[in-house]
Amino acid sequence: MEESVQQFIEKMGILCEKDGMARSAGRIFGLLLASDRPYSLDEIADKLQVSKASVSTNARMLEQLGMIERVSSLGDRRDFYRVEADPWERILRVAQGRWRQMLHVLADAREALPPHMTAGKERLMHAERFHQLLIDETDGLVARWQTLRAGPGRAEDAA
């Protein structure tokens, strides 16, 4: 593997680790983001020099976050993983779903707090407003991204 690719993979590991993920999850994402084809769990483990169990666990987590997808190959029973053609919108939509869940938890908790817990109720109300803002603004971000993605300078145009 080229040095520049290895450096990118390591930087992605560190960045994702700062976001609370396992470093190996970020390295998997980096590998797949830079790659031209899907990889099996065994291939990922070999390229990154980590255990297949670690790759399996982290690939599942990345899939749940909308960062990668599992695909199959005709005649091969193994699962393969790749970054979707446009993972960025999917990542935002998955996050938006989590924010909706959080909004419901916060609203239920605020309603359930005893009346004398006014400071707690106020903090929960602010948290609800914040999460509602995230939910509302995500639709606009996705629309802007779709416009940018379809515009000049697309990677496909350069090929």
Task: Describe the 3D structure.
The chain is 70% helix and 9% strand. The chain contains seven helices and three strands, in the order H-H-E-H-H-E-E-H-H-H. It is elongated. The mean pLDDT is 91.
Quaternary form: single chain
Query: H/E element string?
Result: HHEHHEEHHH
Instruction: Report how far apart the termini are.
Output: 22 Å
Beta content comes to: 5-15%
Structural classification: mainly alpha
Query: What is the CA-based Rg, rounded?
Result: 20 Å
Characterize this entry briefly:
This protein is mostly helical and 159 residues long. The chain is 70% helix and 9% strand.
Considering the chains and any ligands shown, give keywords for the structure.
159 residues, mainly alpha, 3-stranded antiparallel beta sheet, 7 helices, 3 strands
Present the secondary structure layout.
Blueprint: H1 3-18, H2 23-34, E1 39-40, H3 41-48, H4 52-64, E2 69-73, E3 76-82, H5 87-112, H6 118-150, H7 155-158
Antiparallel strand pairs: 1-3, 2-3
Helix pairs in contact: 1-2, 2-4, 3-4, 5-6
